[in-house]
Amino acid sequence: MKQLSDKRKMSYFDLLIRSTLHTCCLFALILSLTTLFSGISESSAEDVPVPATDVSQEASGPIRVQLGIEVNQIPEINQKAESFTVVGYLLLEWEDPEFSFDAVEAGAKEKFLNRKQFETLVAENALRWPIYIFQNQQGNRATQEETFLVRSDGKVLIVERFTVILQAPDFEFSKYPFDTQDFYIRIVSLPRDDKFVFEPHPDFNSMGDHLGMEAWSVGEPDVSISTYRFGLPGKHSQYLFHFKAARHINYYILRIFVPMFLIITVSWVTFFMKDYAKRVDVSTANLLTFVAFNFTFGSELPRLGYLTFMDLLLVISFIITAFTVVCNVIIKRLDSSNQDALCQKIDTFFTWGYPIVYIGSLLVMVFYWLY
Asked: From CA 113, how far away is CA 168, in angstroms rounded?
């Protein structure tokens, strides 16, 4: 019995040792497998290429492009088509490290390129540049000269001499011919404003001394930057070159207002004539003269949906001159009927009422319409 008990104790002890050894082996196996899979995942993560991001570009934001315009001539202002022609220079200047090159290897610090050479350089090196358009351009733009300058430090400069017809929807003729018009040159960057942003060039925004606008007095330009949308997602940087121009009024005074004043004076002088038949003839001729004036002004401006100052002046002159014809006919009929007393009263009333009504109408029109 004692031997049997000792054998059972030994079997229990062996079983405990074996179980402990099995557990340790299993734990060691699990630990080795965990270490193995961890090493594999780390090595796989190291082998997968991570897309490179241009941290410097993201940190610095879009490239700032200095843009400037020098207007040399404005050879034509087409008021009827609401457009004007500009001849001038366009300058763009920016800095992009992607355009830099080894000056020693190239043998020069600067490269002068034409458009084809510049576009080839951009295409071969996958570069970006601020492609631009004239937003209010009408028809094709003629480029007389165009030079691209690339420097070894990454600075790029574009100079273009252009002739372009620009739309002018901002024309407003209500005070014509005492009006002052706004002229805009609008340039938009085709790349969005997260790539390129325009800013005014500090030394290249001006008007020439001989613009060819003899009929206008041109003011100093002002430049601003805004955003423009093409109807697609994203915004685009827009450069606005703006100037005002007022008409030289001497032409209109000597060629229009003085003749009109003389015609109106002649109409008034007829009231001092005792030949009433002659009065009717002169008043009718004056009315036809105003019709000719109306056709002259109508050919200069587009068909507007509102009255201009000149339109209103002609309308008042029409009405008063037509009323003069009617009055002279009435006086002639009264004279033929031998109603001399009544004829004299009406004649005296219109003789002095005519200038008062006309001058009063002009004063009201001037202060209401122009001020």
From this structure: 34
Fold for the domain defined by 57-248:
Acetylcholine Binding Protein; Chain: A, (2.70.170)
Q: With a threshold of 0.85, does the pTM exceed it? A: no
pLDDT one digit per residue (tens) for the chain, 371 residues:
444 344 444 454 455 455 554 555 545 545 554 554 444 444 443 443 433 334 344 446 899 999 999 999 999 999 999 999 999 999 999 999 999 999 999 899 999 999 999 999 999 999 999 999 999 999 899 999 999 999 999 999 999 999 999 999 989 999 998 999 999 999 999 999 999 999 999 999 999 888 888 889 999 999 999 999 987 778 999 999 999 999 998 888 888 888 888 888 888 888 788 777 788 888 888 888 877 777 777 677 888 888 888 888 888 888 888 888 888 888 888 888 888 788 888 888 888 888 888 888 888 888 877 66
Closest Cα to residue 119, out of 144, 164, 150, 97?
150
Domain boundaries, the chain: 57-248, 251-370
CATH of 251-370, one of 3.40.50.360, 1.20.58.390, 1.10.3210.10, 3.20.20.80: 1.20.58.390
Strand 63-78 relative to strand 196-207, pairing: parallel
Q: Give the distance between the most distant pair of CA atoms in the chain.
A: 176
Name the packing angle between helices 340-370 and 258-269 (round to 10°): 160
- What does DSSP assign to residue 300? T
